[in-house]
Design brief:
alpha/beta; four-stranded antiparallel beta sheet; 96 residues; four-stranded mixed beta sheet; elongated
Length: 96
C-alpha cells in the first residue's frame, strides 16, 4: 500500500510539473473595424507550428513548451506583433 501511494504521488508531481512548464498565449482578437474575430482567422507564432482559431473574439494558443523568450505572433500569416512569453501570457491582437 505504501509503495502504491508513493508511486501515485510521484506520478502526480511529475504530471503537474510538466503542465506547469508549458506556456501559452491568450487574448482578444479584433478586426480593423473593432469587431471580434471569428474562426476564419488563423493565429500562429514564430515559436512552433501550433495554431489557434478565435471564437467570439477570443483565442488561446498552447505552445507546448516553456518559451521564456520574445516571439512573433501572426494572424493569417501577417505579423500582429511581438510578445515576451513566460507562462500564460496575455496578448490582444488585431487581424486585418
Amino acid at each position: 500500500m505504501k509503495i502504491t501511494l508513493s508511486v501515485f504521488i510521484f506520478l502526480l508531481t511529475f504530471l503537474v510539473s510538466q503542465t506547469a512548464i508549458a506556456d501559452s498565449i491568450l487574448g482578444n482578437c479584433y478586426n480593423r473595424s473593432g469587431e471580434p474575430c471569428g474562426k476564419i482567422h488563423r493565429i500562429s507564432t514564430s515559436w512552433n507550428s501550433n495554431t489557434a482559431y478565435p471564437e467570439n473574439g477570443k483565442y488561446s494558443l498552447f505552445l507546448g513548451d516553456s518559451v521564456d523568450s520574445r516571439i512573433t505572433v501572426y494572424c493569417d500569416g501577417s505579423t500582429a506583433g511581438t510578445v515576451n512569453v513566460k507562462g500564460d501570457t496575455r496578448f490582444d491582437l488585431q487581424c486585418d
